[in-house]
Amino acid sequence: MNNGTEIQAFIEQTANFLAGMRVTDYYAEPLPSPNDWRLANVVGRFMALTAGQRETFQAALTRPQRSLFGIYGHRAATLAMREKSHERLLSGLVAAVIVNYAVPARRSVEVALAVYYHVACKLGINTVDLFDEAAGYGGAAAAALFEEYGRRPGVTLKKFGWREIKTPDGVKYKFSTGG
Fold it and tell me: How many CB atoms are located within 10 Å of the residue 49 CB?
């Protein structure tokens, strides 16, 4: 995107698309869904922006709009595992960068990132490289968080409250607070 008009149009298109979505409805959609492909397209366009344009894009989104990228990210990680796709996993992790543009004080980002780490390991992807690449799309605070997480030892699904469930469609990741 070359100019402010194009980035503004992209922001408006994205905001209009997200305005019609609710987190609970999107979460319940079959996997994959048309909204997964639309959000993957938004993330891909986001990745093509300059650092300043990415900042403008993220600042323009509301917290509920950014939350949809969190749902997409985990759906993308699940699809990445099913498809054995580095690109899909990176797209999901960059969506996590978008959702974590402004991290509320009580939110534990580490819990959400465990799924990406797990899928990377299962696919034989170097976690340091993957998280560093995703960090490059975030601001300084997000970048530091993602870079550090990719270097953490001992990240497991169980440690962070996740389970991998086998379904007829392939694996699925479920968070549970109880045993």
Answer: 18
Identity at 176, one-letter amino acid code:
S
Q: How far apart are CA 134 and CA 142, in angstroms?
A: 10
pLDDT per 10-residue tile (average), the chain, 179 residues: 81 95 94 97 97 93 92 97 98 94 68 96 98 93 90 94 94 80
CB 39 within 8 A of CB 72: yes
Residue 55's CB is within 10 A of a number of other CB atoms, namely: 14
Q: Cα–Cα distances in Å, from 96 out to 2, 6, 46, 104, 167?
A: 25, 24, 12, 14, 25
What burial letters (b/e) apply to 134-152, b meaning 16+ CB within 10 Å?
bbebbbeebbebbbebbee
pTM of the model: 0.93
* pLDDT at residue 94, rounded to an integer: 97
User: What's the confidence (pLDDT) of residue 16?
Assistant: 95
∠ CA(54), CA(59), CA(63), 5° rounding?
A: 120
Q: Strand pairing partners for 160?
A: none
Residue 67 half-sphere exposure toward CB, CA atoms < 13 A: 13
| Domain edges within the chain | 4-175
